[in-house]
Write a structure and sequence with these properties.
Elements (H helix, E strand, L loop, with lengths): L7 H10 L3 H12 L4 H11 L4 H12 L9 H12 L5 H12 L7 H8 L7 H11 L5 H10 L5 H14 L5 H10 L5 H13 L6 H9 L5 H11 L4 H15 L4 H16 L1
Helix pairs in contact: 1-2, 2-4, 3-4, 4-6, 5-6, 6-8, 8-10, 9-10, 10-12, 11-12, 12-14, 13-14, 14-16, 15-16
Length: 272
């Protein structure tokens, strides 16, 4: 019998006894596709057990329950913030923040402010999940917190924070631009590339020389640079990409299809 034919209760039973991450998320995904009162109430019962594993299962189900539109989304957000007021486990807090990240477009100003208080949490997994919870929000407190987290000692947190600033919002101001420029010199390659991508999306003319240099030294992370070149949309890169395509046939530094696709997009834009 296929998973989609299992009863709701069988899926819950498997989640409570399962040891495989793959099937765990397959079972979570299947329950998310069943936006009904029974599944919602059963997930809520798990959240109220005070057992870490069961709380996280309940949260993970409700995080994207019903996809679009969400089932009882406002109530789910209320449950998440109610848990945050008393929860101490970093694993549970992480799950709550990731659940909020899928529903953050409906957050109220005071809810966003309460989230920002977690920016100095001693567990990096919590700070990492916080970036996700605040990503895409244009409220001043959310942006200021992500800017602070872009300086976190954990490079993964910096990476996602810079991605959030550069690519998840289209806000263009001097403060964000200065942060992105600062991060083009970050010790982490991924942070540096996300900063470049953010500047390219904003059509900052000063990033052109960086893009040229990165194209000449393109590597396995080349897709980000090529996407940035496409966003920057400067016809000067047509010749540069054609030259790089010839070089790449020898060096095979990057996926050739990425180069060809970017070249085609630029040429198509130029013809419009």
């Amino acid at each position: 019998m296929k998973r989609k034919d299992w009863t709701d209760e069988k899926l819950f039973e498997r989640l409570l006894t399962n040891r495989s991450k793959k099937t765990y998320w397959e079972n979570i995904s299947e329950l998310r596709k069943r936006p009904n009162k029974y599944v919602f109430d059963r997930a809520f019962e798990l959240i109220e057990t005070n057992k870490e594993k069961e709380i996280i299962i309940g949260i993970n189900i409700l995080a994207q329950f019903g996809y679009n539109p969400r089932y009882k989304q406002i109530e789910t957000v209320k449950i998440c913030f109610g848990l945050l007021e008393k929860e101490q486990s970093p694993n549970v807090i992480e799950a709550i923040l990731l659940a909020i990240s899928h529903n953050n477009k409906i957050l109220k100003k005071e809810q966003i402010l309460s989230l920002t208080e977690l920016k100095t949490h001693r567990f990096s997994k919590v700070r990492f999940a916080l970036v996700h919870a605040l990503s895409g929000l244009k409220q001043k407190s959310a942006i200021e917190t992500i800017i602070e987290l872009s300086n976190d000692k954990d490079h993964d947190i910096r990476d996602w924070a810079v991605f959030a600033l550069g690519s998840q919002i289209d806000t263009k101001n001097e403060i964000i631009t200065n942060v992105l420029w600062e991060k083009t010199s970050d010790s982490s390659d991924m942070v540096r590339l996300e900063a470049i991508a953010g500047l390219a999306k904003r059509k900052d003319k000063r990033v052109k020389e960086i893009l040229i240099r990165e194209l000449q030294n393109i590597d396995e992370h080349g897709s980000i640079i090529l996407e940035s070149i496409n966003d920057f949309n400067d016809f000067d890169f047509v010749d540069l990409l054609e030259k790089q395509l010839e070089i790449n046939k020898i060096t095979q530094q990057v996926n050739e299809d990425w180069l060809i696709m970017t070249l085609r997009k630029l040429k198509k834009t130029a013809q419009q």
